[in-house]
């Protein structure tokens, strides 16, 4: 499963846990990366498979991953079909803009969103702030909080020779703060005046050409590389080679990239938006206001120059992952939800 995005990453992680076999989970992928024709074929193919499994195999539960905008009508249809045959639905809400999506939707679509939330046996929110927003939309919905999860990995070594490697991992564009990052990187390198040896790698799809042009315009090519999207198999090695993960998002859900970095003991530099404060705070990461180029440059400079700071924050982040976001903790929460719903 090489589809991009946080939902695909979550599914890949859950496949490796006992819940997958204990509940005999059959995953139906409704999305595939590619052009319009590829995406249409993936969706209508998944609709056929889903209908067969729902009507013929009669599952005990349907677990639907739901997001905003184009994802909503596709997944709402799946929920309505499950409810029509009296199969309980666990509705797992993703997407950083869901409450904005609701507020900007026309009246009929808002009614459908309320029905989707209210008609599910359980609605899973990724954090407390999301749960509050969903309760505001549908006060009667049964909402529970289960964070994203990750498996702790081999710890990175912060004290090693060579340049300090800083990684951005995610969609390249305004929402994830990529252009703020590039401006801050240029500011940091100019301020350092050659006193730091650091390399920035920006990995992800989206506005890649615009980012590469900005790198050239700012004159930071020697220290900044825009790779474009990389397949999931390459991400563990890329993280293992890095010291710092930076994700200065303006709007965000609960990014898997941050959890994966914390699970390796990387130092994380990010912004307190969306579900990020549910994952990380000042005790285990560096937080800056979204869009604040100067503050981000200062935070990056501090992390790049100070290996002891990186070590301390990375240790605290890894400790938090093991206590709260380990996949072995999270799959057991879903197991309890499934048992309650299936009774």
Automatic annotation (TrEMBL):
**Could you list the residue ranges forming a coiled coil in this record?**
none
Protein transport as UniProt keyword: no
* The Glycosyl transferase family domain, residue ranges: 154-317
UniProt-recorded Gene Ontology molecular function terms: glycosyltransferase activity
InterPro entries documented for this protein: Glyco_trans_1, Glyco_trans_4-like_N
Every Glycosyltransferase subfamily 4-like N-terminal domain range: 55-148
Q: Name one Pfam family in it.
A: Glycos_transf_1
Record has Glycosyltransferase as a keyword: yes
The source's domain of life comes to Bacteria
Q: What are the entry keywords? A: Glycosyltransferase, Transferase
Q: What is this protein called?
A: Glycosyltransferase family 4 protein
């Amino acid at each position: 499963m090489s589809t991009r995005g946080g939902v695909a990453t979550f599914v890949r992680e859950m496949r490796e846990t006992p819940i997958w076999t204990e509940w005999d989970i059959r995953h139906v992928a409704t999305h595939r990366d590619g052009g319009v024709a590829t995406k249409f074929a993936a969706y209508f193919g998944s609709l056929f498979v889903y209908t067969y499994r729902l009507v013929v195999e009669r599952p005990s539960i349907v677990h639907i991953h739901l997001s905003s905008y184009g994802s909503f009508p596709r997944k709402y249809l799946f929920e309505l079909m499950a409810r029509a045959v009296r199969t309980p639905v666990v509705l797992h809400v993703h997407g950083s803009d869901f409450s904005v999506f609701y507020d900007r939707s026309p009246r009929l679509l808002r009614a459908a969103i309320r029905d989707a939330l209210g008609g599910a046996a359980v609605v899973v929110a990724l954090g407390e702030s999301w749960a509050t927003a969903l309760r505001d939309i549908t006060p009667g919905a049964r909402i529970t909080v289960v964070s994203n999860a990750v498996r702790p990995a081999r710890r990175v070594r912060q004290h090693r020779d060579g340049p300090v490697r800083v990684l951005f991992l995610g969609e390249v564009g305004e929402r994830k703060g990529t252009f703020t990052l590039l401006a801050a990187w240029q500011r940091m390198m100019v301020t350092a005046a050659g006193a730091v040896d650091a390399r920035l790698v920006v990995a992800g799809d989206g506005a890649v050409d615009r980012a590469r042009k900005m790198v050239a315009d700012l004159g930071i090519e020697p220290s900044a590389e825009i790779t474009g999207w990389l397949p999931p198999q390459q991400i563990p090695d890329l993280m293992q080679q890095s010291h710092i993960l930076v994700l200065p998002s303006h709007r965000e859900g609960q990014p898997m990239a941050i959890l994966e970095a914390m699970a390796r003991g990387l130092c994380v530099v990010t912004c307190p938006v969306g579900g990020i404060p549910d994952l990380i705070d000042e005790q285990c990461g560096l937080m800056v206001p979204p869009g604040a180029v100067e503050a981000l440059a200062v935070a990056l400079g501090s992390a790049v120059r100070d290996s002891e700071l990186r070590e301390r924050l990375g240790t605290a982040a890894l400790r938090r992952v093991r206590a709260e976001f380990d996949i072995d903790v999270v799959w057991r929460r879903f197991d309890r939800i499934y048992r309650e719903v299936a009774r």
